[in-house]
Amino acid sequence: MTEQADAQAAGSLEIERKYEAAVGLTLPPAEAFLTVGLTADPPAVQHLSARYFDTAAADLARLGFAVRVRRGGKDSGWHLKQRTEQGNRELLWPLDPATEGMPGPDAMPEALRAEIETRVGVPASRLVPIAELETERTTVVLRDTAGRELIELADDRVRAVAGESRVRRAWREWEAEALPDAHAEGGAAGAAEVLDRVEPVLIAAGATPSLSFAKIARATGQLVAVARSKGAGEDRIAALERLDASDQEAARTLEA
């Protein structure tokens, strides 16, 4: 649900679900979504480049925050994301038009620096790049019979390089994100209802719910550590270890 955060940043609440998608899968055709009362816009392809930042001690990640700068797509700019029980709350600042290439931490907007120091308690000067992601994204907007935009379905093919380790990972995932019209009246419950309607279509197409909660945790190989810190069982830990090994093998195959 879009809201005005302050004079410089646009704010939103991101409610989404992630799915694993094998290399050979294709997004469901428009006819499949008609069975759940939704029409599909034609697909659009975008290329996204992103750089993520944190302190050497991972202070942001530990508190559920992520900072990135992204070029491409509908939300090009600087992002401050915070994981909450309701979804990801996000602030967005536009890129300086004079900035070329992928900016470093010195190019962060002053308002973003202030937010980091206020919310996380560390000076933005301590942030360093921790990962770079290149994503080929195909999006399809799903509408109801009244034409309201309810879901953005994204088919992401991601290639990532972790910071100092330079470990490379690659994966494919589908994301179903509830758009503002989906929860304009029903809030988070309204968003969950439309996501519930779409999920069986994606599962029938061959997707499976993802164990990954965030691209940055997956890109930096932190999914296992986060799961352990939350007391996950050994079966889940083993599944996450297999996922990370598969991501690294996929990157090696792409580079061969």
Concise description?
Helices cover 28% and strands 35% of the residues.
Average pLDDT taken over every residue: 92
Instruction: Report low-confidence residues grouped into runs of 5 or more.
Output: 1-7
Q: Alpha-carbon distance between the termini?
A: 43 Å
Could you state the order of secondary-structure elements as H and E? Answer: EEHEEHEEEHEEEHEHHH
What gyration radius follows from the Cα positions, in whole Å? 18 Å
Approximately how much beta-strand content do the residues carry? 25-35%
Give the overall silhouette: globular
Number of helices: 7
Main sheet: strand order:
2-7-6-5-4-8-9-10
Overall SS class: alpha+beta
The helix content, as a percent range, equals 25-40%
The main sheet comes to: 8 strands, antiparallel, barrel
Say how many strands there are. Answer: 11
